[in-house]
Design a protein that fits this description.
Helices cover 38% and strands 17% of the residues. It has 14 helices and 15 strands. The strands form 3 sheets. A 7-stranded parallel beta sheet has the order 3-2-1-4-5-6-7, sandwiched between helices. Helix 5 links the parallel strand 6 and strand 7. The longest helix is centred in the first third of the chain and has 18 residues. The radius of gyration is 21 Å and the shape is elongated.
């Protein structure tokens, strides 16, 4: 019998709602379920969005308490769960959950991997920033999504870049309704201020004056959706809501557009490229510049400088992409070399083996 099948891995994340880290946690759990016993710990199952392999065991560690008391209780609940489930290695997602999981793992004397899915500066709380500096050196490994963000983790010995594994069916069945919107620009994400959908809509408004035949399709939901729908009145703009698989939407899009003000990486940019659809994005910290290739004659997308005239520049990039799309399409396959699920999954498997073979201190 393969000895790895006897190992139990804990995957710790606050929820499985729609989001980049949640998508990766689900993917890793599903892919590793054939090699390990996977126990997935969440704080609650509200707004669960991603499907899980039937072999993945789910444990809900709920608490009615908030703040310091609530998080302290979570640490002790995790510790007891790690012991009772005989966990050999914990893998956690997102900084606050990482910190709690590192505490619990040290108490349980098991190795742990903590994965970052937002930029270093996204952690606003001074309290949590201090805890990050204190706890991250105790982890077996810290992973970041980009080389740029890795530079901030100089206080950690075992920090590595591990991009998101992206798995997408690039030859999906296309809903007939999409044909009525073509040609269209696609964007997707949580409708919150940092995602810049308001600026994206304004850029589309400018672009539409020259290219009235285009539609803008927006997938996702969030607290700003109603305000954005009001802003988009009079434009050929369709709000799609939450979409489990964007593959058919990528496949038929002229290009994908992202106006985020910050991105640790960006699953949606990578997915679009893997489907053969070029991208336009703000050159925000840090992910887009490590995904989009713009050197010399090799380019699969356009990076837009984030300055005072960024909305006008974004609209100009839309025009450039609409006029010269074929030049960008031919280089979209470059994304496979770094971000395809097969390549990144191999890195995950090796990292897990390395950590399992380490003796926690």
């Amino acid at each position: 019998m393969n000895p790895t099948k006897q190992k139990t891995l804990a995957i710790v994340i606050s929820s499985l709602r729609m989001g980049g880290a949640e998508r990766v946690a689900s993917f890793v759990a599903n892919e590793l379920a054939s090699q390990y016993r996977i126990v997935l710990f969440v704080w609650n199952e509200k707004e669960r969005f991603y499907p899980l392999n039937s072999n993945v065991e789910i444990r809900i560690l709920a608490t009615k308490n908030r703040g310091v008391l609530g998080n302290t209780l979570r640490i002790f609940k995790l510790w007891r769960a790690f012991k009772s489930e005989k966990v050999d290695l914990s893998i956690s997602f997102i900084h606050q959950t990482n910190i709690l999981s590192i505490f619990a793992s040290k108490m349980a004397r098991i190795p742990c991997i903590a994965t970052e899915h937002s930029i270093f500066s996204a952690l606003d709380s001074k309290f949590w920033r201090i805890l990050r500096y204190l706890t991250y050196p105790l982890a077996s490994c810290i992973t970041t999504l980009t080389q740029q963000d890795l530079k901030h983790y100089h206080f950690v010995k075992n920090a590595y870049v591990l991009p998101n594994p992206v798995e997408i069916d690039c030859n999906p069945h296309t809903p007939p309704i999409l044909e009525s919107y073509r040609p269209y620009i696609l964007s997707a994400g949580r409708m919150i201020s940092s995602k810049g959908f308001d600026e994206l809509i304004e850029a589309f408004r400018i672009f539409s004056a020259e290219f009235p035949q285009y539609s803008l399709l927006l997938a996702g939901d969030g607290i700003q959706r109603q305000a954005l729908e009001e802003q988009a009145k009079g434009l050929k703009c369709k709000f799609l809501g939450k979409i489990e698989s964007l593959a058919p939407y990528y496949a038929k899009a002229e290009f994908f557009a992202l106006a985020s003000h910050r991105e640790a990486l960006s699953n949606v940019l990578i997915e679009s490229l893997l489907c053969g659809t070029p991208v336009v994005s703000y050159d925000c910290p840090y992910g887009p510049k490590e995904i989009i290739t713009c050197d010399g004659t090799t380019h699969n997308g356009i990076l837009v400088k984030m300055d005072a005239k960024r909305v006008e520049s974004l609209a100009a990039a839309f025009v450039e992409m609409a006029q010269n799309r074929k030049d960008y399409v031919k280089n979209t396959t470059l994304a496979y070399e770094r971000f395809s699920s097969e390549i990144v999954l191999e890195k995950w498997q090796q990292l897990i083996l390395d950590c399992l073979n380490k003796t926690p201190t």
